[in-house]
Amino acid sequence: MGIKNIVFDFGCVLVDLDKQRCVEAFNSIGAQAISTYVDECRQEDLFHDLETGHIDVDVFCNEVRRKSPACTASNEQICWAWNQLLTGIPAERVTKLHQLKHRYHLFLLSNTNPVHWLPCSEVLEGCFEKVFLSYEMHLVKPSQEIFERMLQETGIKSEETLFIDDSKANCLAAESLGIRTLHVGHGDEWLDQLDELL
Predict the structure, then answer these.
(1) In the list 17, 23, 69, 130, which could disulfide-bond 35, CB 3.0-4.6 Å?
(2) What whole-number distance in Å separates Cα of residue 145 and Cα of residue 140?
């Protein structure tokens, strides 16, 4: 059965990431404890709670200051440092999305947080029929439940759906529900490979 729906991840698929730039930004505002989290790609407690919507941005910023007592940065400065992880969405990816949406139903499914999502959402305006964000759903990939919720809310069929993600675990979770997947290491890979799969 042919592909009718394409579901995109956000980080490393649409937006490029620079972990070292983020580490340096947190260090520059005195939040060395948080830069260690970023450097080690730790997702527990603080970042996980923001990503699942269990804390809001104000609580996140207060926790950053609590964990790094030398940090006296404002909420705006802390959000700036966290956003240094994102280096932007290349124009050719946005152009490709606009081309694809004339032939396929496009959706976004991401483990993300409001600090990262909101600045990028305007760039992706009009690209997707619906976006599914972990902090709004209180669910994160690779749980099967987040994929099941997406399928239920959109009414799309798993066997007609392609999911693109940079995490092998997330792809395996999608495959367990019959969704076809494309596992990529960075955003340019799907640009190169997608036409061959469709």
Answers:
(1) 23
(2) 9
Provide the token pair at 164: 């693109």
- Provide the token pair at 43: 């997702």
Two tokens, residue 52 = 């699942």
Q: Classify the C-alpha dihedral 185-47-170-158 as positive or negative.
A: negative
The C-alpha atoms of residue 149 and residue 145 are separated, in whole angstroms, by 6
20 three-class SS = helix
Percent of the chain's residues with pLDDT above 90: 89
Summarize pLDDT for 110-149 with one digit per residue, the tens: 999 999 999 999 999 999 999 999 999 999 999 999 999 9
191, with CB counted inside 10 A (0-12, 13-18, 19+), is middle
Q: How far is CA 1 from CA 4, 12, 52, 160, 195, in A?
A: 9, 28, 34, 6, 16
The DSSP output letter for 30 is: T
List beta partners, residue 163: 7, 181
Dist. CA 101–CA 125, nearest whole Å? 12
